[in-house]
Amino acid sequence: MRRAGLGEGGSGNYVASGYSVYEEENEHLQEGLRAKVNALKSLSIDIGTEVKYQNTMLDDMDTDFDSTGGLLGATIGRVKKLSRGSQTKLLCYMLLFCFFVFFVLYWFIRLR
């Protein structure tokens, strides 16, 4: 035990106390590191939960956009069918009506 400086003796006590100080410092740093690891673990779990929530929201939006795209496609098909006929005057009235509605909505939102 004398070689390691941990036995009885004058210089051995100094080495043992130095070792104890290092051991306490290591334990203190280990506790700090453990707290940081726990904080990172909690943060990564929260990020994972948020990512899952965002993915479900994106899937819902994708479904909504697909259904809206189908509705718009059908409407455009009807407008094309209407334009092929000799009812161009009706088509012009319909376009003017759409512009009027958009203008009124824009004006209403702008005043609000």
UniProtKB/TrEMBL annotation:
Main location: membrane
CDD domains registered for this protein in UniProt: SNARE_Bet1
Residue span(s) of domain T-SNARE coiled-coil homology: 20-82
Alphabetical UniProt keywords: Coiled coil, Endoplasmic reticulum, ER-Golgi transport, Golgi apparatus, Membrane, Phosphoprotein, Protein transport, Transmembrane, Transmembrane helix, Transport
Highest taxon of the lineage: Eukaryota
Topology term for the membrane: Single-pass type IV membrane protein; Single-pass membrane protein
GO cellular component: endoplasmic reticulum membrane; Golgi apparatus
Transmembrane annotation, as ranges: 90-109
Swiss-Prot/TrEMBL GO biological process terms: protein transport; vesicle-mediated transport
Subcellular locations according to the entry: Endomembrane system; Endoplasmic reticulum membrane; Golgi apparatus, cis-Golgi network membrane
Subunit: Interacts with SNARE complex members GOSR2, SEC22B and STX5. Interacts with LMAN1/ERGIC53. Interacts with STX17.
Similarity field: Belongs to the BET1 family.
Role description: Required for vesicular transport from the ER to the Golgi complex. Functions as a SNARE involved in the docking process of ER-derived vesicles with the cis-Golgi membrane.
Name the UniProt record assigns to this protein: BET1 homolog
Species classification: Eukaryota, Metazoa, Chordata, Craniata, Vertebrata
